[in-house]
């Protein structure tokens, strides 16, 4: 069994909450007391069924306004997988929430209303999913019952979307005709659409290969914490605790410690004091090294053979997440895995139109929910990867120096030096 | 490209260990809140995996309402002894006296809400800047939106509008003086995941998690353990039943479920069969209003 993390983005009326409710209901994850709570709140749809969106809209303000504001996490499992749903709002004013939910997702479900076809928000959700490096997209053409389960309608939407999707980085795109309300092609095949031969949504979610989404080539081990028991039995023990964010580590591996560039050899790989043969992403382990080297939190243990260099200046895509706009010259804290350093945004290069992917130049200020390409310089050197090469070592957050609020999310696009 | 397969429990474990080490790395004075329940017992096992052969970089802290199950208290003391880790216990009773708090009275009287006062007092006494807790997002819909690092103001309050976006595996633990963080390493685990982990790791639990005969009061269709702490009314019906507890909180607000599950496997089978969610089956305090949990969290509760 493994885990699939996916995001659903959408607006109230495109049936997103109904789709999630349906997945939970059909996999028997909705419990009696939750149904009871929904019924007692008295919200039903036009057919008199309980409003499944009540399951996902958790906060008082959200239920009052009938909208999703924040990312909500939902869980269900089948015999094959555990599923973690990041349920994010879809409106452009909540782009930052979708970016947040997308950052940890391996798959994105995009809902298209069969009556409306590919809309601006379809494109926006696809573009954000692609920018965030989500490897798998599922286009659910919903409300097929309202177009008489017509194959031609579905085929037209597939053709329209395919033309648009050439702009995206995402290569794995799957189209499924569904009716979330009726349950067609959600957990079980639809009787209304014999012309559709593909898997149901749930079957696809169970089978889409995710193991190969993990980068096992580029070994990166950011040290979070140094274990020094200083007891009689472990007098000289120094264990470097961290998570293998990509790649693999074994005893005997020749390693470099970045940014200092000191070299050593892996003496042992451990977890909770027991020795392991090998550690691979995304395991949390302890590495012991042969040599006494100076290592502290924020250093990254990499393999010597990779010949890596650290950088202090790079270009990145940044999604701005705060009401106070970002201006060129802004000084911020930058957190990248276990490292934290000060940085300055030296230049705002262009803004990305999230509906079209077009660039808008001569930007003075970056507003909340904007995605921009910027040039960043850091006070301390960092070991960075391009986000498209290594998602787990190419993302960072920007933190306000006085309020400590998280104000931006960045993805490394190009390392300058 | 080569592939390796990491089982789902290993993935959850790796994430939780990573979060605990972020707490250890980012904060000066963290603490692990320990209740004696299965979720905090799971946290202790995860801390062993994260920090052994070293010591935990935090003490275990228990806020004792005085109405806990004696089995949980005994388990707590034995566990701290076996681990050789520091245990701090603070009593709600003392806070009630010191701050002249009024104890809730009546049919639903519980000290559960008063725990918040003692918790905040304890945070202040020791200067804790981060408290690790065993809350899970699957428990309740307000928790479904909780961050893994949840920033609280100096009154311990949770403001859903001030929550920081949390991206990738990067946790922002920077806080201003007086603020603190609640960190939830098993946010992404469900009740079933916790039990599967307990099974895999062969973790012993307080025996009240398994079937036993107990005298119970029947209240709103739920079975409450009969004890000196619970408010009794003449019409209360007392029954003897084979029960177990799905959650272990205060005796006054945690209901038992009828069960014959005697070991981990039979508990797992029962959860798979169950048609009531964990909190729905066992918590009186959530039933008081639709936003009971959201309201309590805003007031400083977990």
Number of domains of chain B: 2
For the record, what is the CATH homologous superfamily label of the largest domain in chain A?
Answer: P-loop containing nucleotide triphosphate hydrolases
> pLDDT under 50 segments of chain B (min length 5)?
none
Name of the CATH first level of the largest domain in chain B: Alpha Beta
Radius of gyration of chain A: 24 Å
Distance between the termini of chain B: 43 Å
- Rg from alpha-carbon coordinates of chain B: 19 Å
CATH superfamily grouping of the largest domain in chain B: HUPs
- Summarize the main sheet of chain A: 6 strands, mixed
- State the name of the first-level CATH class of the largest domain in chain A: Alpha Beta
Catalogue the unreliable spans of chain A: none
**Proportion of residues in helical segments of chain B:** 25-40%
Task: Describe the structure concisely for a colleague.
The complex is a heterodimer of chains A (417) and B (302). Chain A has 417 residues and is α+β, with helices and mostly antiparallel strands. Chain A is 18% helix and 37% strand.
Please specify the SSE layout and strand pairing.
The complex is a heterodimer of chains A (417) and B (302).
Chain A: E1 2-10, H1 16-26, H2 32-40, H3 60-65, E2 72-77, E3 81-89, H4 95-103, E4 107-113, H5 120-131, E5 136-142, H6 151-165, E6 172-177, H7 201-207, E7 220-227, E8 239-243, E9 248-250, E10 254-258, E11 262-271, E12 274-276, E13 278-280, E14 284-289, E15 300-303, E16 311-320, E17 326-327, E18 331-336, E19 339-352, E20 359-360, E21 365-366, E22 371-382, H8 391-394, E23 395-399, E24 406-415
Parallel strand pairs in A: 1-3, 1-4, 4-5, 5-6
Antiparallel strand pairs in A: 2-3, 7-8, 7-15, 8-14, 9-13, 10-11, 10-15, 11-12, 11-14, 16-22, 16-24, 17-21, 18-19, 18-23, 19-20, 19-22, 23-24
Chain B: H1 8-26, E1 30-33, H2 38-51, E2 60-64, H3 70-83, E3 87-91, H4 92-98, H5 115-126, E4 130-132, E5 149-152, E6 180-183, H6 191-201, E7 212-219, E8 222-225, E9 237-245, E10 255-258, H7 264-273, H8 278-282, H9 292-298
Parallel strand pairs in B: 1-2, 1-4, 2-3, 4-6
Antiparallel strand pairs in B: 5-6, 7-8, 7-9, 8-10, 9-10
